[in-house]
Structures
1.
Amino acid sequence: MKIGVFVCHCGSNIEATVDTASVAGTARAFPDVAYATDVMYSCSEPGQDGIIQAVREKGLDGVVVASCSPRMHETTFRRAVERAGLNRYMLEMANIREHVSWIGKDREANTNKAAELVRLAVEKLRRNRALFPKSFDITRRVLVIGGGVAGIQAALDCADGGLDVVLVEKTSSIGGKMAKLDKTFPTVDCSSCILGPKMVDVAQHERIALHAYAEVEEIGGYVGNFEVKIRKKATFVDWSLCTGCGLCMEKCPSRKSHDAFNEGVGLTTAINIPFPQAIPKKALIDARFCRQFLKGKCGVCAKVCPSGAIRYEMEDEVITEKVGAIVTATGFDLFDHTKYGEYGGGRYPDVITSLQYERLLSASGPTGGHVKRPSDGREPRTVVFVQCVGSRDTSVDRPYCSGFCCMYTAKQAILTKDHIPESQSYVFYMDIRAPGKLYDEFTRRAMEEYGARYVRGRVAMIYPKGDRLLVRGADTLMGEQVEIEADLVVLAVGAEAAAGSPALAEKLRISYDKYGFFMESHPKLRPVETNTAGVYLAGACQGPKDIPSSVGQGSAAASKVLGLFSRQKLESDPQISQVNQRRCVGCGKCALTCPFGAVKMIDVRGEPKAEVIETVCQGCGICAVTCPQGAVQLEHFTDNQILAEVNALCQS
Amino acid sequence: MSQALTYAYYPGCSGLGTSREYDQSTRAVCDALGIGLADIPDWSCCGSSPAHTVDHVLSAALAARNLAKVEAMGRDTAVTPCPSCLTNLRTASHRMADNAFRERTNALLDTPCRNTVTAKSVLQILAEDVGLDALARKVVKPLAGLRVAAYYGCIMNRPPEVMRFDDHENPMAMDGILAALGADVRPFPLKVECCGASYGVARRDIVARLSGRLLAAAEDVGAEMVATACPLCQMNLDLRQGQINSAGGTSHHMPVLYFTQLMGLALGVPEERLGLDKVCVSPRGALRAAAERAAAETAKGSKA
Ligand SMILES: Cc1cc2nc3c(=O)[nH]c(=O)nc-3n(C[C@H](O)[C@H](O)[C@H](O)COP(=O)(O)OP(=O)(O)OC[C@H]3O[C@@H](n4cnc5c(N)ncnc54)[C@H](O)[C@@H]3O)c2cc1C
Ligand code: SF4
Ligand code: SF4
């Protein structure tokens, strides 16, 4: 065998603390190494060309690249060796950047360690063999989870690109937070005017199947061929009959039900259509408030419904859909401000959240767009906005910035002046973060044209004084305490991961950060991919994001799906387990330990034997270490290969 | 309250002086509830504010000297009525959890402190160990009709990681006790705000402003009396009420009692053991108004 070793400088990233030329020199003495050199940037075009040329000129059979983590560039170098005419599995990487140069300053020690890692890679490569992926068919349908603006965009772009889309939304209408907003920054255009038509497009698109009031229960399979169980929660109304006429809402006697769409500002009926523009525009019964469920009698809606759609006996239904790719767009939830006792902990009715304020501003909201205090219905004169409530505060374990609150607070201050010209707004802020296009100009307008008074500092306390609220805080620019008597206080609550995000991530087998936001595959270069092939992210489920960015990601995720499906067939990863049936004693331990159910027991001439289902195996290798006989081997990570690496290390 | 509760008791210096009535009423109330208070023999000052402004080890040593004496008594809980003493005792324990710090502290002491004692406030043991239901059963003269604001002061519950008692922004222990005794407890928004504390000596204007705000807020929620748990708060709100009025041009006339004095009244403790005559703004008027209101309520109730 003839092996070539390429030791990368990574500019100065590696070269500064590793003598790469000397590592290459040492490598020349390793068994089977026919060629070794150091390279400035092995991933660059000349770097890759150098590898290809060496393979051809020296007749190499395998290549070791000593550079960065394989998570960074393994695919790049596999493609390079393939272009040189080798099998892509005849490549090994030695990570001498993350594992060596970035973690130690001692050049001599680093150089030795780098050489050892190269020896290890060489020993492994000597035992590598060519592996060939199998190709399989794709189910050209996509599942979008979450019908906020990001999910809507992803669904429409996929459908317009010719794919069948299954859209699953947890609540009874799509639209997400954006449907609740009055106007949007920085253009102050009406939120439902720009979102509404898109929602209608979803309803009317022949390629989109919408399951509202539904959740994903179980996900099996793999890229190209997922099988998804969806729980359609009981609405107690047959949606195939409901026309959305709203008669039931007029007559329902239970008028004190929680109004989730209006964020608890105002009340609704037990049977309700959440808002007039809802998609689908269908009624559902909230059993927590319905008299038929609570007291066992009422039945008014069943009597008045002209289409006979009411079904009190309805139960949840679980359906199965087959899809080839999944876009997750489950958005965010709001920080629970009752955790701040100093802001009243939810005890003062006139201390409200920013999203509740959007509902008060909205013409279709519970007050018809008249700003009224929840306590007494009076129009406020002085409104205080408090930013960063549950953002950038380690005391509540929310060290991150929610990103959009500075902007929506400026918007709300502008809208307050529009609604109540004689009002005065105050905004307590820590810093103003307005880096988007036309964003900083927008916050300046709030101050300069609309006279909002910005006070730089935190609010220490809010408490009632008579029928008003005293807001006490620091003005850190003036270096003094300020007290403002307010009629209404609006808390710019920060963004949190949507409820249930970790559980969903586990079903999808994708990673999430410690706050529950989903993790992208690479923070810069693969922002909408995840580490699970075929699963993509869009919108605020990955981290707080405003509408333009959420929509951008929706389209980006759709383009990834369209790209994936543009291939005729997909290739399976050959790095999977194989059972040597002559060695297998049929104990079944592997089948028990496999977390993916990829090992099945079969009968071979009366003897039980294990067999790996190639398309299901994820290549984790758990079965290989479980097998007492060494009968299961993970391709590309066989016992022989790993022991050779260990020996290389221990003997050097 | 299944078996007899007994605690090592640390009255604090002010308990022998400016807040005699707090100490007296605490003892009387515990008596009435069958709680034993065993005085710590040869206890000494906890160091109060001066010590910790000079040196943390010195401050901890002054407190730890007393904790060591509680250890010698074979007890694991020390109770004190005074939140300032409590802060010093608990802060000392908190810091001594670090072995190096404990060694430095013990180097100043004849008898080393093992740091096995938990200091608690009288308020805490009444609320947690006795409990509201048991208290309610012991009431002989309910505080019915008494509109009262419960004021905890700024250090009873804070910092939360040291004090570990009740909600540090909206504590409810005293509210709960007074309600169990039948009082009409008002939702007092400034229950953990500072009264100005020892600035009463150096900067009277600050105390006049901060304590004045407390009195105004109490009036605002319709309270006719303030219940406190802290000698310094009581002094600022009560003794300095005249100063507050002349500085702010106000005319507050707000009696400020220790919550233990009110408990004593409800539990039927003879008045002479509660030191009601020790406070400046007489509570008589407010107590009378409450009694009349309660009587009127009962009359209305029996007519209906
Ligand atoms: C008060 C306020 C004002 C704002 N104003 C503006 C503004 O003016 N301009 C601007 O650009 N941005 C604004 N934003 C930000 C904007 O709301 C977000 O950018 C946007 O909503 C993100 O869209 P999304 O689709 O990612 O998430 P979401 O809007 O949160 O939508 C997520 C959807 O997924 C659904 N879902 C959640 N979990 C599941 C599940 N497990 N299964 C199925 N479905 C699920 C939810 O029900 C929801 O419908 C504002 C935010 C707030 C709080
Ligand atoms: S009355 Fe019947 S058809 Fe009309 S909205 Fe209600 S359930 Fe639907
Ligand atoms: S049964 Fe009665 S209470 Fe329940 S949704 Fe219908 S009308 Fe409303």
2.
Amino acid sequence: MTQTHGMTAAAEVWRVSEDETRLALAEAIYGGNESLRLASSSLSLSTGEGLAGAVLARRVPVFLEEFDDESFERAVPARADGVAAVLGLPVFDQAKLTHVVLFMFRGGPDAVGAVELWAGRRGRFELGLTEAYYAGLERFGKVSRHVNFPMGSGLPGMIWQTAMPRVLTGVGRSREFLRSSGAESAGLTNGFGYPVIERNELKAVMLWLSSSESPLARVQEVWRPGEDGWKRVQCASEQGIEIIEADEVIERCVAERAPILAEKPGCSGVAALPVMIHENVRAVGVIAW
Amino acid sequence: MTDRYVEIVNLVKAYPNPLGDAIRVVDGFNLTVRKGEVIGVIGHSGCGKSTVLTMVAGLNDITSGDVVVDGKVTDGPGPDRAVVFQAPCLLPWMTAFGNVMLGVKRVYPHGTKQQRKDICEYYLSLVGLADAMHKYPREMSGGMQQRVGIARAIALKPKMLLLDEPFGRLDSLTRMDLQEVILGILDREKITTMVITHDVDEAVYMSDRICMMTNGPRARVGQVLEIPFERPRIRREVLEHELYYDLRGCLIDFLEKFDKHKHPDENAPDCKPEPEPSSEAGSLAPSFGVYTDDALSGSPLTLAEIGGGA
Ligand SMILES: Nc1ncnc2c1ncn2[C@@H]1O[C@H](COP(=O)(O)OP(=O)(O)OP(=O)(O)O)[C@@H](O)[C@H]1O
Ligand SMILES: [Mg+2]
């Protein structure tokens, strides 16, 4: 199988201590980057320290494009691997911040893709773009900064309304993807969105918009509980990759109420992200790169 | 307060339907407007733009929802909201001056005769009619009549100006003239404005934000585009702005996506699509509240406010 050059370089899950002051690395996938693995192996962080620590302190997703050793404690090995942006994503179990997921993204002249964070606009009934990383999508990014979605509209608005992760195919053509200006011509194909929910409140929506040339994710899925177990209810994948056999990843994710990383044949890594509302794990979003 | 000067909250309009259940033409329209902001409204013909505007004006009964202007829930029409329609509806037996005076008398009942006269003359000259104040409608072109309509609305010193395709019947040169007239007045008077238009360029040129409506029935806000151009606006600078064509493209994309003829329906993802929220989920739209339980229905969601303010 020919492996396309994906934009996702590495992912980590950091577990937050009971008193919400410290972080320990729980899982990681480095896609063969040994120096990053070494630099990370003995690391532990406290509130405010490094990127995961910043997420713990601020309790919101944190995006870094311009990073140094202080803002991202492993800036050197990451940069050596071509990492151009890092995202720290908080995962809440009701009011408690239990995990921080870190994603590292490559850039480069041929990369096309977008990772966006959408959040509430002060005093409005709308979601607006707060931070984003655009590779090869300069015009698309410029316009997106001026777009706002009410509940139920566009991919971010649908995620807000349903409180669920969401997968979208053919973003350039889909009626649900309203910002097609440039999206289709730039080669964006699939979209994946995940709601960050704290104490039953929407805090942010994370979107991944992938191209087939340099996908952020090659498989994206949404799983929900059904009468006889968890079921895949939405999916999209790039040519040349099958659906990921994710059942046991989902099982762990639901049982542990935690984001899970795994390695699977045919891809570098799989991440399962739970959406928790009240007592329930309501859905799991799966991305594989 | 000035950030939420006008609040349109979960506005619904249902018209009776002789063949069955009432038709919800507009269903869950939400919009918050800052003081002095100009909001453009676009959407396909028949989607419900005028319905929203006339409800905000108080001229059309609201089925449910609220319109709050400067902290007060509106109830019926009032001088705090002035409306200009496509056709100016001037009284044919009165001059331009007389038509403007009609409203001025109502809102300045305690002014002296001279004060009222000054006000009428001031606003008529603002719209470029200093030399035509004593003409009758039959002696004026459509564009001039529309100027009278605008002067009449603005002379009321409204908190909100509502324009429903105000230039829809005018040729493009007159239209551009009148855009300048309105923008000039808005720059000076800072009146909070909602303007419906079918013209994408007009929307971009005039608005601070453009509210794109989905198709009816059950129309609501689909997307809101911020127009970052500074005021006062200079047409040439706007046209040459690096974002102009991308912003315009964003509006056209939206309209094309909702063009019934071009898109039968094609938003289903590969696998079984997620069931769309049931019609009851319309009750989600009021937007404030918390996900109440694990069921989808009836679970409005609070939006935590982080970053992105203004
Ligand atoms: N009094 C009424 N009774 C029943 N239906 C009505 C009534 N008034 C309007 N409608 C319907 O409501 C819908 C919205 O009408 P509205 O005039 O608000 O649309 P619009 O967006 O302003 O259209 P246009 O761009 O053509 O002016 C239309 O389908 C219209 O047929
Ligand atoms: Mg109309």
